[in-house]
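#onboarding

Welcome to the new folks! Below is a worked example of what a typical request in this channel looks like: someone posts a single protein sequence, and someone else replies with the predicted structure as tokens. Don't worry about understanding the tokens yet, we'll cover that in week two.

Example request:
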Amino acid sequence: ALAQQLPDIMSVRSRPFGIRFGAFVVLASSREVLSIPKPTTSQIAMMKRGLAQFMHFSVDPWTAIEHNCVGSNPQCVPPSVFNPTNLSTDQWVETAVSFGATEICLTAHHEGGFCLWMGPNANGYLSNELKVSADEFVQRQLGMLTELLTSYGTNIVSRLWWDHYPSGCGGLAPCPDGSFPAAWPQFVDLVRKLSPSTIICPGPDCDGHQGESGLGKYPTWFPCQPTQANGTDLTCSGHEPDDSLPGFHPYEACATMHNGWFCKGNGTGGSNVYWTPSSIWDHYMNSVGIGWVNTLNAPPGTTGQIPPDLVTNMETFGKALRALLAPVSPNAVVGNKTISCTNSTAAGVGLELDLSAPVTFNALLIQEDLTSGQLIRSYSVDHWDESTSSWIPFPQCSGDSCLPGSPPPSPSIPSVPSGQCGPAMPGINLVRDLPPSCKLVGMVQSASACDALCAANSSCNFWTWHDLQVDPPSWRGKCVLRFDAEYAYYKEADHTSGICNHTLTPNTAGVGVHGMSVGVRLIDFVPETTSSKVRFRCTASLSASNTATIESFSLHRGQRPIP
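Example response:
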């Protein structure tokens, strides 16, 4: 049934369709060195899509296993258990549309080898139970890739998501010795031949799979230095605003909006926990909102549909996002203009929105035209103050203070004096949904060890330890530190938390502009302002002519959804 419905998901509303492969890693052809590195048409298209809906679907929901057929679960679950009771790919696409995603990325073939389609090369498991030679393994994988790139249309797959790139065999990616990494060029050549518009990310076309936090890093610089192997680009590192760097790589982040990559059962019950709308918002703003691509996982359960609780949270986020992205008035948008980059504040400098009447806004959306490369190194934004007849610059923010609308602290959390750590609180989770200010610091054997890591870090305010009985098992013993001044209080078994008051100060979220890179998309939150004129100024450029082209500059108003 799934094989019969797959063509529909690729055509509904003409949405692009991405397929993730768990065991493929690739190389790409080296690029011609240019004075300023430029993206390909496919790279620009991927960056403009921004938000993708990841969908981990395999035999795992019918079991308690997170990584089937690999790692700590080497015995493969029989393919016969895969039997969705109410499969609806229409529901997947409808959810993606309401969520605000413009791409669906389905695990057509995950780590364990189970395949979500029928065909002569869909042989169930090709990992560690089927004993084949390295050459036969590679040829079967190439056969599967050929089927997926040709059986549902020609050149229609927007992206291939290749896990474990660019590693070889081992760990969660078992394969016969001698197969990978030597075979990667064959896979790249096949994709370029059969589906030339398909971008491989993670892969040779981007810096993908940047951890699994779903968070980006600012500033976002795309120029980079390619690393070659056998005459092909393998990776691109050392990202800087430097016109001597020959490579151009977008960034891609990913995360799961569930407490595992796969649903447990039908997705209901205490073993399934989902991100809140506000948590989705924070991750979006700290990735897509600063020019990254983010692939966020919404896994179907045993019914074959995304669980209703997660759908509701995604729809709530999507509604808030659409409200934000709508300009505050029809004339609050200007673009497709090339401007000089200068520190001058004289009249006529920059790109000005001259509105017919004062409008109220709290956000700016800036989009740089990247067809000639990433040029803007720094910028500023100011607004016209009628009372003083002068331009007033918005202040610059940094880090988490650029994110808007964090909720107030929970009254259930005890007060801790400045510079001290409070007692451990069993059964409490202070890092649920892993907000943007969290960092997974490693595995420890006790809550006291996690407490000590926070106490030793002068920026850490909260910690949560996942005890040795927590589900999923992959989280057992993990210590997460949190560095912001806001927190949500959750009663949750198998967690222990505490507070170390190092920098607990009033929230300053949403106070200004980022001020450095712009890229394909940048959302700046500013104090709510009413003005009839707003001006964007590029203050430094990589271009020899010291110019940059703004695709769009617009004014917006929106709020972080609660909760």
